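Minutes, project check-in

Agenda point 3 was the complex the collaborators sent over. CS summarized: two entities, 547 residues total, and the question is how they sit relative to each other. Sequences were read into the notes so everyone works from the same version.
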Amino acid sequence: MSRPVPFRAVLRSEGTKLASLRSTWWAAAGYVLVAGGFGWLAASTNPSADSADSALRIALIGFGFAQFAVVAVAVVAATGEFASGSVLASLAAVPRRVRWLAAKTGVVAGAVAVLTGVLALVCWLAARTLTAVPGGVPLGGAVARDVLLQVAGAALTAVLAVGLGTLLRSTAGGVAAGVALVFLAPLLLPLFGSTGEWLAEAMPVLRVGADPFLVAGTTGPVGLAVTAAWAVGTWALAAVLLVRRDL
Amino acid sequence: MIELVGLTKRYRSRTAVDDLTVTVQPGRVTGFLGPNGSGKTTTMRCVLGLTRPTAGTATVLGQPYAELAAPMRSVGALVDPRARHPGRTARAHLLALAQSNALPRSRVEEVVDLVGLAEVADQRVRGFSLGMGQRLGIAVALLGDPEVLLFDEPVNGLDPDGIRWVRGLLRDLAAEGRTVLVSSHLMSEMQDTADHLVVLGRGRLLADVPMAELLGADAAVRVRSPQLAVLAGALQRAGAEVSAQPDGSLVARRLGVEQVGDVAFAAGVRVHELSRTTTSLEAAYYALTGEDVEYRAGER
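CS then shared the predicted structure for the full assembly.
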């Protein structure tokens, strides 16, 4: 009898799948251009700031739009399987469906985390180079925390979006739901009074923490916890239904 | 070996597979026949754990599919030629699946050569013809060098060369002692390929018989002679059931072709033609499923 397949083999397989689609690279290019480009622009139009922390936050502003790329890639990683029918081959190869979904999610979230980390450091470089702050913008304390929050937020958004894609099995539906959750709802809900503001704070957002982009922002840890709860909840529901439903 | 015990799959309004109990044995090609919608694909998907049966069990090599340690090393399947992402190259598709079961990369090159896709392996499968898609699907099934193989309509869309190649492949795989289950609606194809038949009709098992038995059940000897009446009498006395045909020949059942020849010789009858007529699989198949198909057509 053959030996069980190690989890890293399934991870490698999902890595090949992600890297072998052209759409992945287009989305990555868009992410780099928007997050990096806007970051550099924002930093260059912000000649001075009071603190290293706020200088970095301005430079990170591009992520507010760039998150579309994260949502799109992560949703499509799941829905592409269902839309094309390749899920039949995938799950015949890896019949333990939660394992399969975990590998797919891990690869997508991992890739998003790495790219976000690099981009956040680029934005930090922009802030350090272009924005005058008393004492400079050292990579430590609040600055390092914001970079890590950005990475964690992006990775959690990817988890959320893979979950949405697996639940809805439709690219249009998944991307729409993802964009509504992490972008439109947190931005629009505060227009509807204090209840709306409260609801907005309960929505997952890619840019967690006190964000100049958002009307209603929470503190970093709270925002991260809210986004994590959404990501874990959606993903768990997706996993349960994936196991229960036929293909 | 594939074992189905009481396998049943009900959807809201219809029963796709109804209490199916079949054992598919290794070392021979088992043909899986039935009209469209008779439950062949659903059965195969239940075996692969893609569809959850309402009742009953499907096991492969004595285990439920999901519990196989490295599924592709035990079971290879062509479920649907569309089971691939159009934006991926054939090689990337195969590599991702090979990696998922910890199969070596070299295996991808082997199956690409084996199915004759070497020249197009780096093209996106979006542009593949139906036949190339089938070859890719077969390559996926062969990746893990499995003991059990399931092919759902493998010759769909293949050219005559491809069909001949698949026939040889299936026969070779069975000759190596593997379990081969292949569904097809091409009767003549099945007649040349399968050793054993499992026939479904509206989800129920209609037959689970060796091909020779199904075809032999209606075997007969056809004989032409200028002395028909004498010959008919002699054959009847020898125990044959004789019927005169509109074209002036006789068809004798229950006697072998040698015996009919001997009887004619003993009776001193001149013989102008002596041949064995086997029924075609198609005729035998319609004898089995005829009512079924009529019923369906009448319903619509």
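Noted in discussion: Residues 7-244 of chain A form one domain.
Follow-up: revisit at the next meeting once the mutant set is ready.
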